[in-house]
Amino acid sequence: MGQVLLAPTPLPLDTGSARSILPYADGKLGSVLAHPCPSLRASQVEPDQAVGQAIRSLRTRRKWSQTELSLRADVDRRYLSVIELGQSSLSVRMMFKLCDALDVAPSDLVKDVERRMRVQGAG
User: Fold this and answer.
1) Taking the complete model, does pTM exceed 0.70, yes or no?
2) Mean pLDDT across 52-64
3) Between 20 and 30 A from 68 (CA), which of 41, 97, 99, 108?
């Protein structure tokens, strides 16, 4: 017969476990201190949204449709739309494919995302 798989037993939640899971938690349930990355501390914009905005901006500056970029990057157009709307996290592999199609360095995309998060988080 087949194997019986048991679900893992959940660990008991105590005030000390938050500190071990989240390095920026102060140990009290529901309490989180400032994010460890200085550029994200005051941010109101989620990283996925900032990535989507940056990609859409690069695409529209070139006057490309989503279809054109998706063909150049060999990405499904519907998935590109989801990325631009900030509803999906971008994998490293996908970031490189899109950056290659847009003729931009991935590091430049990341810098733009950080800038968008700082500017929109401060405003």
Assistant:
1) no
2) 97
3) 108
